[in-house]
Design goal:
Blueprint: E1 4-5, E2 13-14, H1 31-42, H2 46-58, H3 60-87, H4 94-102, H5 107-138, H6 158-174, H7 178-209, H8 223-241, H9 246-249, H10 257-283, H11 300-313, H12 315-340, H13 342-349, H14 368-381, H15 390-415, H16 430-444, H17 449-474
Antiparallel strand pairs: 1-2
Helix pairs in contact: 1-7, 1-10, 1-12, 2-3, 2-8, 2-11, 3-8, 3-10, 3-15, 3-16, 4-5, 4-15, 5-6, 5-12, 5-14, 5-15, 5-17, 6-12, 6-14, 7-10, 7-11, 7-12, 11-12, 15-16, 15-17
């Protein structure tokens, strides 16, 4: 368990002296900033890439329901994060939850280590996916970014180097105190909202100029095909919603976490879902022909969104929307790296990961070594394809992070009924059960589900083996000796 020294009766803050200094994290984040950090991560490159793909997968009439179903899953799962985040407002989010639920001297030590192990893969891949998408949007202005600088390596493009540079730039911008980071985040957020509103206004304006908004004709599909398409579309929508829990990773830096964390989670899901549904409805008439071909070209989703604005307001409107989407992608990576940098730090504090990462910068008050490590690994992953990472990210997190938490919140209610819970899940246990059912739906109806689950199982197996070797060496569970 993370040692705590109280700063308030209800919610203490970590004060263990750290390697290389005695600096600790301070509670500076209020509700508005908490919602901001969540929304910055949620509204990134994802919705602009996924929008036509969702329509292509689910069809015109079911595409809106994919966003609605994704929001319902996010709310159900968000309530789980809200109860755990309010009860355990510590750095690391899921790391702290799994360790506490399953016992820091028992299986919780293994599950929390396993979580940090998979974060070592998924967090840099998430950062890289945002940077790769950002570089794809830059190709609207510089088409040569798609060319290969080395003839012997045709899969390596200038866009990969642009993505890696963006990752390193974000890391540098985050290497400062939290007050400066918050001010910069508000500046980035203005561009995020402008990008969303620009796409929505352009979509409805284009529809009005071409005969008004109307639902395109859709072919009749069998039940099996409709469910399969809806599952694929909802998986894409779910990827776009992820980030509503970002504030839990900053739990040790949140003021009044018993109120701030649950409200920030629910408000961010509601705000973002309203934007996504409106954006889908706005562009639906414009994409009725192009959406069926979206899966065939990685650049097409970017061009489609820019083309809608260009058709409605002229060429410079298309360039403006593309620039705002680049801004939005950058802001998402900014928030993503900010949150996940706290996870290895929290594990290292407990002696459950590399101790080197436990340091807090004596001046800026941030876990700077953890931040730099994830940033550098993310820059390396920028040299992979975007399509190679998104689905694996979703499947791995569902299996190794979300399911253990949803089961864990139920176990915690049974085993520790007297635990103070500043926020309690309404209609318990329906939300965690609904979240598990929703995620199971995404897993079962995927075409390549077994292959993707096998990759997640390999990550789990390798992490478990590494943990067992380490536990045997240091005498931790299950090799701990009774005194």
């Amino acid at each position: 368990m993370i040692p705590l020294t109280s700063t308030s009766a209800a919610h203490p803050i970590e004060q263990r002296p750290l390697a290389g200094g005695h600096a600790t994290l301070e509670r500076r984040i209020g509700l508005r900033s908490a919602v901001l950090f969540n929304m910055l991560e949620m509204i990134g490159v994802g919705p602009f890439i996924a929008l036509p793909l969702v329509i292509a997968a689910a069809g015109y009439r079911l595409s809106v329901w994919a966003w609605v179903l994704g929001a319902a899953i996010a709310i159900a799962d968000g309530l789980v994060w809200a109860e755990l985040g309010a009860a355990f407002p510590r750095a690391g989010g899921s790391y702290a939850f799994l360790r506490e639920i399953y016992g820091p001297e028992g299986p919780g030590n293994w599950l929390s280590f396993l979580y940090v192990w998979q974060v070592g893969f998924t967090a840099p891949l998430s950062v890289a996916s945002g940077c790769i998408g950002l570089s794809g949007f830059l190709a609207v202005f510089w088409p040569n970014l798609g060319s290969a600088p080395i003839a012997a390596l045709p899969a390596l493009h200038y866009s990969n180097f642009a993505a890696a540079a963006a990752c390193l730039l974000v890391t540098a911008l985050l290497y400062r105190n939290l007050s400066s980071i918050t001010r910069l985040a508000w500046v980035l957020f203005t561009g995020v909202i402008a990008a969303l509103l620009g796409v929505i206004v352009s979509g409805f304006a284009h529809a009005a100029a071409t005969g008004g908004w109307h639902m395109p004709q859709a072919p009749t599909l069998s039940t099996a095909l409709a469910l399969g398409g809806l599952a694929q579309a909802t998986l894409l929508a779910t990827y776009c919603y992820w980030g509503y829990y970002n504030i839990t990773f900053l739990g040790a830096e949140v003021r009044r976490p018993e109120r701030t964390i649950p409200r920030a989670i629910l408000l961010s899901v509601l705000f973002v879902s309203a934007f996504y549904v409106a954006m889908n409805l706005a562009v639906l008439p414009s994409l009725r022909k192009a959406a069926s071909h979206a899966a065939g070209s990685a650049a097409l989703p970017v061009q489609l969104v820019a083309d809608i604005a260009r058709s409605a307001f002229g060429r410079w409107a298309g360039y403006t929307i593309a620039a705002l989407i680049v801004w939005t992608a950058f802001a998402s990576v900014f928030s993503l790296l900010l949150g996940y940098s706290r996870v290895p730090y929290a594990a290292a504090r407990d002696g459950n990961y590399f101790r080197f990462l436990a340091a807090v910068h004596p001046k800026h008050g941030i876990p700077h070594r953890s931040l730099v490590a994830l940033g550098l690994v993310g820059a390396v992953f920028c040299f992979f394809s975007l399509t190679q990472v998104i689905t694996l990210l979703v499947i791995t997190r569902i299996v190794l992070q979300f399911f253990p938490q949803q089961i864990g919140v139920i176990l915690l209610r049974i085993q520790r009924a007297d635990l103070p819970r500043p926020f309690r899940i309404p209609l318990y246990p329906l939300p965690p059960l609904a979240a598990m059912a929703g995620f199971a739906f995404l897993l079962v109806y995927r075409v390549h589900a077994l292959m993707e689950l096998a990759v997640a199982a390999a990550i789990a197996a390798s992490g478990t083996l590494l943990y067992l070797l380490r536990a045997w060496r240091v005498g931790q569970w299950p090799f701990a000796r009774k005194s």
